[in-house]
Amino acid sequence: MTGARPRVDGPAKVTGAARYAAEWRAADLRHAALVTSPVPAATITAVDTSAAERVPGVVAVFTHHNAPRLRPPVGAPYGGRLPLQDNRVHYEGEPVAVVVAERLEQAREAVGLVRLDYAPLSAETDFRAVADTAVPTPPARWGPADTTVGDLAAGIAEADVVLRAEYSTAARHHSPIETSATQAEWRDGVLTLRDATQGVFNVHAVVSSALDLPADRVRVLAEYTGGGFGSKGYVWPHQVIAAMLARELGGALRLVLTRAQSFTSHGYQPPTRQRLVLAATAEGRFTAIRHDSLSPTSTYGEYVEMTANGSRVAYACPAITTTHRVAPVATVLPTPMRAPHEGPGMFALEVAVDEVACELGIDPLELRLRNHAEVDPTSGKPFSTKGLLACYAEGARRFGWADRPRATGSLREGDQLIGWGMATAVMATMRFPAAARARLHADGRVVVEAGCQEIGTGTYTIMPQLAAEVLGCPPEQVVLRLGDTALPRTGMTAGSSTTLSVGSAVTAAAEALAARLALLATGDPTAAVRLDGIELTVKNGAVEVFRLDELFARLGVDSVAAGGSWEPRENQRSMHTFGAVFAEVAVDVDLPVPRVRRLVAVYSAGRIVNPLTARGQMTGGLVWGIGQALLEKSTTDHRLGRFVDKNLAGYRLPVNADVPDLDVAFVEEYDPHASGIGARGIGELGSVGVAPAIANAVHHATGKRVRSLPIALEDLL
Amino acid sequence: MRDFDYVRATGSDHAIEALAARPGARPVAGGTDLLTLLKDGIEAPEALVDITGTGLGAVEHGPDGLTLGALATLSRVAADPAVRASHPLLVQAVESAASPQLRNMATIGGNLLQRTRCPYFRAETALPCNRRTPGSGCSAVDGEHRAAAIFGWTGHCVATHPSDPAVALSAADARVRVRSAGGERTLALDELLRLPGDTPDRETALDHAELITAVEVPALPAGSRSCYLKVRERASYEFALVSCAVVLGVDGRKRISQARIALGGVAARPWRLVEAERALVGVELTAVPVRAAVERSFAAAEALPGNAFKVEVGIRTAVRAVLTAGGAR
């Protein structure tokens, strides 16, 4: 039943039939538009909304003077400050007023007429300039801020080669096609939100607590989310604003972030400064790894990019020390972005490994093989499963790595310098509790329900496959309902956790449904059932075939349902996904703009439920990695305290012409520990290891070692 | 966005009249740049005069060269067999611009008048920018200016002109035919597009209610070779960091007999490398002497800290374009 199944939601998305948060109609729909602060830190000293209020169609203008009061939100990560509650500004782009009008154009025009006077306060937006850095308190599942195993000094002392280098990655923005949007409706004392979110239950928790509404008076729906990449994981002020103003004004209200606002109204991937010490013997054994990371957080809340997490587990090494520090700056709170932590972090580690390989004269792949970690070197725990050696072997075979000449600059085609590089990908497996329900109707339809989200990854396609596998029916007989807080509770669609977590719950629900059907049909819940259309075959010694309509009529029911759930209990194993990424680049000898010519990537990620959607995830990740390596960078003007470019012309994402043939493969694997279905996470893994593989290839081509991302033409002149 | 009137002109006279009647009116054709400027509040005209019905879209060719109607879309220009045969550098430049969807809408006249991509000018809110708000200052000089000009700029503005076709047209010695109530005149590109001086908001020599009607592109010299080379980080759908258009005559001994070189992405208009053009005559088509000649034009280059690398990139781009046009690459 599982296998290569095309995306069932593809036609709806391509034809426009799929409705996103801001596409729902309501007869009394009004439009909200944000006024945002043009300065990074200030006190608002005067407010004049009179001109804005005179714009035809304007219903109301809210500022901190007249906005409803809110309570501190609890129960889910909230990335903003409470909107319109006081006269303080903590970052450029912070919402300071909201216009509600009958038409969007009216609201937008009125936004320009809201007059706010600011008394600017001193603000630092450059995290490297912050003197008082802090030790962060990361969420428990990300691990501690600092770790140390073994004797670092001894490891350095016994090494023949010690690399000390600083690496940096740029601030980046998620830039999904669908900017964040919330449509809020207040009717009969019930608040309904249609939201572009990666976590309906998170939105529910934040909104109900901030508005002090009972949980059963708030419902959050997300039938489709148009890409998130982390930007829609945490809850942000615009969602609270939409909910607050819908309740205040009654009826329906839509708030859509402009593209420019999507650069400041939710978090971004923070830039990082990473210092590496990598010590090795002449034979290529690592003796010490030290990875110190600094990244910005906001002045009002904490987010830490755990870039050194990958270094805790990537290689066998007797002494590993990692630290994370944060520097508060006057920006919106940074937030996870595909792939958080290991995405920027493995760039530093994997370029450092390449540097040591060059120094030692050992092939970079061979050096990694010599330091392969059989157990998690920091926790000492065994890995749940790890197929990295097979990834290296298969990736090298597909790429033709064995033919790589050692010397830099030795592959050349006319004006093009060609380089080959590789890197390891490692990513922690995130898991969340999940529940699901499965209901069989008399006409044979199986409806699976789970309150998770579809953010473009294939959830609508693969959950029916998993239920169908248990019930023995074709996946076309199963539909998934999702994105609704009235449905069984799941976690966020984030951290590449949905397939393994929700999939385990869906499988459990389908198994419970099968057992219930067996019980109802034969009195024995352990009998094997197989569903095909409206025929239910039950094998219990003898084989009996029931027609569902007849069986249900006899039982006096319209349908039969069962629930299932899954929780991540196993914690005696280190759970990570792995991969090997190989890159070929071409760099013009005079005009050195690096171009990626091919990527080969092989992954160890547990069971692959659907090779088609899985491949889609990983190729998307590789493209994401090309952007990280060569294009994506949000520059801050520290005098103005703002991101310079807030549009997709200035913030460069890869286009088709930047993307070469991508060769993706998976190692055959079943992980019995990580989940109930043999799977670990995959989505974000695809964007890990790409940038260092490209950077190492650029070095192989040009002899130039670039330690900052993105790699720019001027780095190679 | 402010409400505005919309007038659909039935002919160029009508368009000119409609514009003249409204001091705050702007002509609109493909709208690929203007609509973005309206939505972002960078421009707020009181009226738009739609000139797409004025019949100025013809592409004509004769022994003396091409006449490109101002409303000819970029895709129309690039697809024209005569243009492809006579001015391959223009086709290369057009096809490297924007995306196919934009080229289907954007007109050659509008392309010349598109406004700068300087991020401060293009910001979603009004930042100090003399081009956008005269007298407000230039944020780029002391701010982010990686893509800024290295020729012809002043402390009032360091923005560049973003067009690819304009660079090729400059190297082709094209002239722009313009028309107003007072009659017709023709302008060289260097006359049409102004350098910033102390009035960077005055971007062109066009008067209000003066329309571009056509671009006249003389035939390239017999036997000449040409090339358009664009350097950009993203492989497509990206403005040039630096680009170069070259028209080259080469004699029987592989020496350059004539050269016209225009650089894009380095100034508020396509920048002709006049000194290099002179110095290249008689030079052998190999890297070292060509570079020496090209460098003559870069004595006048002035860079800021963040775009100093563009001087070297500009030299290398010009050298590569000359060698490519000459067939030495």
TrEMBL record, chain A:
Q: ATP-binding as a keyword?
A: no
For whether the record's keyword set contains Metal-binding, the answer is: no
Q: Kind of enzyme, top EC level? A: oxidoreductase
Enzyme Commission numbers on file: 1.17.1.4
Q: Per UniProt, which keywords does this protein have?
A: Molybdenum, Oxidoreductase
GO MF: iron ion binding; xanthine dehydrogenase activity
Q: Which domain of life is it from?
A: Bacteria
Q: What is this protein called?
A: Xanthine dehydrogenase, molybdenum binding subunit
UniProtKB/TrEMBL annotation, chain B:
Q: Which UniProt keywords apply?
A: Oxidoreductase
InterPro entries attached to this UniProt entry: CO_DH_flav_C, CO_DH_flav_C_dom_sf, Diverse_Substr_Oxidored, FAD-bd_PCMH, FAD-bd_PCMH-like_sf, FAD-bd_PCMH_sub1, FAD-bd_PCMH_sub2, Mopterin_DH_FAD-bd
Q: Where is the FAD-binding PCMH-type domain?
A: 1-222
UniProt-listed Gene3D superfamilies: 3.30.465.10, CO dehydrogenase flavoprotein, C-terminal domain (3.30.390.50), Uridine Diphospho-n-acetylenolpyruvylglucosamine Reductase, domain 2 (3.30.43.10)
Task: Look up keyword Oxidoreductase and say if it applies.
Answer: yes
Which Pfam families does the entry mention? CO_deh_flav_C, FAD_binding_5
The protein depicted here goes by the name Periplasmic aromatic aldehyde oxidoreductase, FAD binding subunit YagS
Q: Which GO terms describe its molecular function?
A: FAD binding; oxidoreductase activity
